[in-house]
Amino acid sequence: MKTSLKISIDSILTLFLISLAFFRVDFAGGNAPFLVTPQMIISLVVLVLVVLKKDILKIKLKRQSGNLVSGLLLILIFFFISIVIGYSGILQLKKMVLFTEIIISTIAFLYLFMESNNKSLIIRSWIKATIIIQLIWLIVQLTLFFTNTHQSNTEAIELFNYINPFSAYVGHYLPRLNGGFLDPNVFSYYMSFIFFIGKYTKTIKPLEAYFVILLVMLSFSRSGIASFLLVYVMSWFLNEPKINIKNTLTNFRFFLLFVALTFFVIYYFDLYERIYTALEVRFLKSSKSTSIHTEILIYGFSNAFESLKTTLFGHGFMSAPFYIYETFREVGSQWKYINFHSDYATMIFETGVLGFALYYFTIGQLINNRKIKVLSLCVFTLIMLQGIFYQQFNFHYFWVVIAITIQMTETKNVLIR
Q1: Is 217 exposed, middle or buried (0-12, 13-18, 19+ CB in 10 A)?
Q2: Measured distance CA(36)–CA(124) in Å, rounded
Q3: Which of 2, 95, 128, 222 is surrounded by the fewest CB atoms within 10 Å?
Q4: SS (H, E, C) 62-88
Q5: Is residue 79 packed enough to be buried (19+ CB in 10 Å), middle (13-18) or exposed (0-12)?
Q6: Closest to 231 (Cα-Cα) out of 262, 202, 204, 191
Q7: How confident is the model at residue 262 (pLDDT cuts 50, 70, 90)?
Q8: Cα–Cα distance, 327 to 334 (Å, whole number)
Q9: Over the stretch 70-124, which tens digit does the pLDDT of each residue have?
Q10: Phi, psi of 167 (to 5 degrees)
Q11: What SS3 class is residue 55?
Q12: What is the DSSP string of 172-201?
């Protein structure tokens, strides 16, 4: 009986991980005040499992995991206090409830994952299933794009209220792939985490790794691609690579196969001009959107220290939309520009220097080790780089990735010499 329960829990943990990217699935069909995603449903199941196994919370955690849990609980308390001090509207309380569910379910996941004897198998199943699912998204999104099927001409299809399969556009030249996410930037960040976790837990195969890199590139996310490449180069040097002829030839064979397939697709569909134009639009030209985001970013930093109260406690957790929308009302889009697109600006503006310090102290548990491990450093650096131009703290996957990384590096001997 005990064995079957454990297998069941491992299966649920795996399903939870697989569901992390399903932001394009809304079981409520847009009729709830928030997205009712598969990950939300399964994360509640994870919470119930911990309640049923209440003795599990009495288990002593190792230092990094213990500090992570303590930091997460302190974040919840402090962020709520910041709302009380800087209340702007009911949206803050709604977001606080969602954020609380994310944090508590992450802690529940950490305890259950810690108890599993099949950590590598769970991660392998997660990565394999994620890659298969992203391949399906890739085929669907490319098909819709190249058949000129847009959301505007399919509004009568009720299914699309529950599943949004459409990609973002680079002009009208190529799709910006976003997989199961609503934002291509978040998609690139998520796949970057998948890549490095797979690489340093040895749970991703060479061809799968190349496919993940391709997905990161096809997101056309400037911050996502830049952070991925920087961390990849950093990890290569830090891992003290030794030339293994057999492994090198194997990887080179997969690389050639991957390149050949990519060029065949480009040639068959005559995509050269489209790709060049898309690269020019995304990487060589400055868009109106980029300019507006830069203004909002500057606004966040420059208005964070209005008084002693805002300096210490901020304007209140999730208060940014109220200030940004009123200040940039003339932009004309209430939804596109309602956050700073930066962890740094958001934390300092909404939660002050105290919340900022607590937030990064908690994330810093990734490298709170006498011998910093390669995987931990890669994930930590990705977070710090991506946080410049985006905020990820309100996604389940962000905190779960941190929990997985700490758990794996506490049990795996992958060290930087």
Answers
A1: middle
A2: 26
A3: 2
A4: CHHHHHHHHHHHHHHHHHHHHHHHCCC
A5: buried
A6: 191
A7: confident
A8: 11
A9: 999 999 999 999 999 999 999 899 999 999 999 999 999 999 999 999 999 999 9
A10: -90, 165
A11: helix
A12: TTEEE--TTSS-HHHHHHHHHHHHHHHHHT
Neighbour count for residue 197 (Cβ, 10 Å): 21
Indicate if the pLDDT at residue 414 is higher than 50: no
Exposure string of 263-291, with b = 16+ CB inside 10 Å and e = fewer, is eeeeeeeeeeebeeebeebbeeeeeeeee
- Smallest CA-to-CA distance from 292 within 319, 318, 325 is with 325
- Tokens of residue 7, six digits: 């297998």
For residue range 266-283, what is the model confidence (pLDDT) as tens digits?
A: 777 777 777 877 777 777
Residues in the chain: 417
Q: Which of 152-156, 261-265, 327-331 has the lowest mean pLDDT?
A: 327-331
* DSSP code of residue 151: G
Residue found by looking up tokens 């970057």 in the block: 192
- Joined together, the tokens standing for residue 329 give 């009302």
Residue 303 class from Cβ within 10 Å (0-12 exposed, 13-18 middle, 19+ buried)? middle
Which residues, including other chains, have CB under 8 Å from residue 200's CB and lie 6 or more apart?
A: 374, 375, 378, 414
| Cβ 387 vs Cβ 343: under 8 Å | yes
Look at residue 331 and tell me whether its pLDDT is greater than 60.
Answer: no
251 pLDDT exceeds 80? Answer: no
**How is 239-299 classified by DSSP, letter by letter?**
T-----HHHHHHHHHHHHHHHHHHHHHHHHTT-HHHHHHHHHHHHTS--HHHHHHHHHHHH
C-alpha–C-alpha distance, residues 354 and 338, integer Å:
23
Question: b vs e for 363-374, b when ≥16 Cβ sit within 10 Å of the residue's Cβ?
Answer: bbbbbebeebbb
Predicted TM-score (pTM) above 0.70: yes
Separation of CA 256 from chain center: 30
Q: How many angstroms from the chain centroid is the CA of residue 374? A: 19
Name the band, by pLDDT with cuts 50, 70 and 90, for residue 293: confident
Spatial CB neighbours of 125, under 8 Å, sequence gap ≥ 6: 14, 17, 18
